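Example 9 (inverse folding). The structure is encoded as follows.
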């Protein structure tokens, strides 16, 4: 052991240079080992001292815990790495200067920051200033701002949208602005959750006490603002009609200047979204715990009872026996025609509610509902982890089409919360299965997670294809051929020489691409204002079509590649500019097309040439605004600024056509979803739960048996405090035993070891101890009667 070397918990060390017995004390002065020879590092993080008992000689090492895990298959180790990468790489992590103080955050939105905090608290060392920002800026009546952004000195549109109701406030120096999305009713309970989880990670009791009055004001604001936040009739939190906890209302409910985010007492059709209620109840429980720690016992009891009453009332109003009803209107006469049976919809907050203190029977009913959903997934769906399912058929199309974003996308948010609930409520194998499928999903998309995946793909239908033969009109080279009187590709040999020709199918669309061997080197129809090219080419059609699909690309030019003209038999002409990004992308190493939902633009072919390893051609689906008219001809016309527009294929569809959606949806920060899965992985599968802040006490429930893992090494740490729990886990099925070597920074770890059958005995450091069997559903946990100290300790559990 080298003087000053960094050491991980449970790392095996040799006390070299100590001629006799020695004692190891941690940074808190606690004795964590006494003996000779090798020992395992344990106790509080920071500098530890090894003192020889015979000579008095001392040496030191620094215990540096960090969150990591290793499992026998390596799959969960790689999953944690992908999740950490996603959280660290995504979002608006940064800072803002307000009133002379710099505040740091993971995301500018409090909601997103708090949800990301669930995972990032295991990796980040500064957590408090983000919560301080919203404490310090809290509105006088207790309302908490939603987000903070920089702004310039001139007024902007947010002022117009959110001044009514006091939902906008600029910094005094006009360098930034606070906003509250009016329709939202989750910010106050999330503010309390943020205080609570920050306190747990930092262990800073004094800081927590300084936040308590702000937390009380926040929950009181929700309960006392009956105009905007609390339903007097239903006695629960209220909001406008949004999809679960999101911030935009259904189109029929955008009745305040047509704004989906605005609400107005007397105008908005309010109702209860159940997730606001379970979140509020959870916040009451968290606040009660913090008040109890601060010695404010009467207030703690009041908030505990308030949370319980909210859940009781919610169950009366919204519990359906299998899940919570998504939205309960204040006015029962309100009926919306959104194309779906709303009582059948299972929305995101059902998964959240599993971990917010609802009853075990309710939790198991919700888990059973999701397992049934898994058995009937739409083709192409990555999992049952829907934002809402079934989705709305109408009412959200302008912002959120079917299978996208909050209207039926699949999100790791639900997967993580669902897995965490499954581990907690006796469905450990289901929780492990979710994590396994998430590991596959992460690898599928390049080692990171997206927070929203397309959850529904339109069924494939034949739109009635008719490929137009462009060979008679081809006039330019694209393959790098050198034919007299044929305009060459401008950058040959950096060209499209590998592009296939003739009758072919790309993106499941048939095209007839001119073959230069049959057309004297002419492989495309090209138009340009440049020398050697025609400025327009007319292609006869003489038929009706709903959609035209162009296989094309462009060289040089500005924002437009050309102009598409549809000439109808009645003499009318429809003109459409072919714009970069919307209708066309360059051939030169293009990035993937970014469009949400069913797409009108896609890369159709990729290849290479002697100069570049990646060239491509795109396809664009362009609607005919008059499908009832006969198209006499299509004219391809040049654009200014030197663009050369190459059209290699043109296909007509009798019925409307779109390319399938991307498997990746949009709209939710990736770090939020990744954090939910970290939470499930570390608290659920690894089973490490912080009871007292900074892991001063903890509950440790290794659940590797549910995944079939025989070995695992786990360390779960809070860098903000140095608190940690670490253990090495080994399962020995032949001996019918599980062995756990455990260490921590805290004073006590309560162990709960999952075993395949009821336990028959427990040893701690080789000595038999009393234990009890805890049953959760069909699962059995062996629980030693007394917790173990900071360690290291060896715990062995046997079953019959």
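The amino acid assigned to each position is listed next.
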């Amino acid at each position: 052991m080298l003087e000053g070397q960094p050491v991980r918990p449970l790392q095996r060390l040799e006390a070299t240079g100590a001629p006799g017995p020695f004692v190891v004390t941690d940074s808190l002065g606690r004795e964590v080992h006494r003996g000779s020879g090798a020992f395992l590092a344990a106790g509080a993080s920071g500098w530890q001292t090894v003192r020889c008992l015979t000579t008095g000689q001392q040496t030191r090492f620094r215990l540096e815990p960090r969150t990591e895990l290793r499992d026998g298959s390596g799959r969960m180790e790689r999953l944690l790495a992908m999740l950490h990468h996603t959280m660290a790489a995504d979002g608006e992590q940064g800072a803002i200067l307000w009133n002379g103080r710099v505040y740091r955050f993971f995301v500018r939105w409090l909601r997103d920051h708090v949800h990301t905090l669930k995972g990032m608290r295991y990796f980040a060392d500064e957590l408090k200033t983000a919560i301080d920002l919203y404490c310090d800026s809290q509105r006088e009546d207790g309302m908490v701002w939603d987000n903070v952004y920089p702004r310039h000195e001139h007024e902007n549109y947010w002022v117009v949208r959110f001044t009514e109701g006091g939902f906008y406030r600029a910094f005094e120096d006009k360098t930034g602005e606070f906003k509250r999305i009016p329709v939202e009713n989750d910010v106050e309970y999330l503010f309390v959750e943020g205080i609570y989880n920050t306190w747990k990670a930092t262990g800073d009791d004094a800081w927590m006490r300084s936040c308590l009055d702000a937390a009380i004001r926040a929950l009181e604001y929700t309960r006392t603002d009956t105009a905007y936040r609390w339903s007097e009739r239903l006695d629960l939190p209220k909001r406008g009609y949004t999809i679960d906890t999101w911030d935009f209302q259904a189109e029929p409910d955008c009745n305040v200047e047509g704004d989906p985010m605005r609400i107005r007492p007397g105008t908005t059709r309010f109702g209860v979204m159940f997730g606001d209620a379970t979140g509020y109840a959870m916040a009451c429980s968290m606040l009660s715990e913090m008040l109890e720690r601060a010695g404010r016992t009467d207030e703690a009891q009041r908030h505990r009872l308030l949370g319980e009453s909210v859940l009781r009332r919610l169950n009366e109003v919204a519990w359906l026996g299998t899940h919570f009803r998504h939205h309960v209107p204040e006015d029962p006469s309100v009926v919306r025609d959104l194309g779906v049976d709303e009582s059948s919809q299972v929305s995101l907050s059902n998964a959240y509610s599993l971990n917010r203190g609802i009853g075990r029977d309710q939790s198991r009913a919700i888990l059973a509902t999701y397992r049934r959903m898994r058995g009937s997934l739409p083709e192409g769906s990555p999992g049952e982890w829907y934002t809402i399912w079934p989705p709305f058929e109408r009412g959200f199309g302008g912002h959120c089409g079917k299978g996208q974003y909050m209207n039926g996308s699949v999100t790791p948010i639900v997967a993580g919360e669902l897995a965490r609930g499954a581990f907690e409520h006796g469905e450990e194998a289901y929780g492990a299965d979710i994590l396994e499928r998430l590991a596959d999903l992460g690898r599928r998309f390049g080692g990171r997670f997206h927070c929203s995946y397309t959850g529904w793909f339109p069924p494939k239908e034949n739109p009635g294809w008719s490929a137009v033969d462009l060979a008679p009109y081809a006039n330019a080279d694209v393959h790098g051929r050198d034919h007299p009187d044929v305009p060459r590709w401008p950058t040959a040999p950096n060209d499209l020489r590998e592009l296939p020709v003739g009758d072919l199918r790309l993106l499941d669309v048939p095209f007839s691409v001119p073959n230069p061997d049959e057309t004297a080197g002419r492989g495309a129809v090209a138009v340009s204002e440049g020398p050697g090219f025609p400025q327009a080419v007319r292609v006869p059609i003489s038929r009706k079509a709903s959609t035209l699909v162009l296989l094309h690309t462009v060289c040089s030019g500005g924002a437009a590649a050309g102009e598409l003209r549809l000439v109808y038999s009645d003499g009318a002409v429809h003109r459409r500019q072919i714009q970069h990004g919307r209708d066309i992308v360059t051939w030169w190493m293009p990035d993937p097309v970014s469009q949400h939902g069913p797409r009108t633009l896609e890369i159709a072919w990729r290849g290479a040439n002697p100069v570049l390893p990646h060239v491509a051609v795109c396809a664009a689906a362009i609607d005919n605004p008059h499908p009832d008219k006969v198209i006499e001809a299509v004219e391809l016309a040049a654009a200014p600024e030197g663009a050369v527009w190459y059209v290699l294929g043109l296909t007509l569809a009798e019925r409307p056509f779109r390319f399938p959606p991307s498997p990746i949806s949009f709209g939710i920060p990736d770090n939020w979803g990744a954090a939910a899965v970290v939470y499930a992985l570390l608290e659920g599968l690894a089973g490490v739960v912080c009871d007292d802040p900074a892991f001063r006490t903890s509950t440790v429930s290794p659940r590797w048996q549910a995944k079939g893992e025989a070995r695992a090494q786990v360390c779960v740490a809070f860098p903000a405090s140095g608190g940690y729990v670490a253990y090495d886990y080994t399962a020995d099925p032949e001996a019918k035993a599980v062995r756990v070597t455990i260490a921590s920074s805290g004073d006590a770890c309560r162990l709960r070891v999952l075993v395949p059958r009821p336990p028959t005995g427990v040893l701690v450091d080789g000595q038999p101890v009393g234990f009890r069997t805890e049953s959760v559903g069909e699962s059995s946990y062996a629980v030693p009667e007394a917790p173990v100290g900071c360690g290291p300790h060896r715990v062995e559990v046997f079953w019959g």
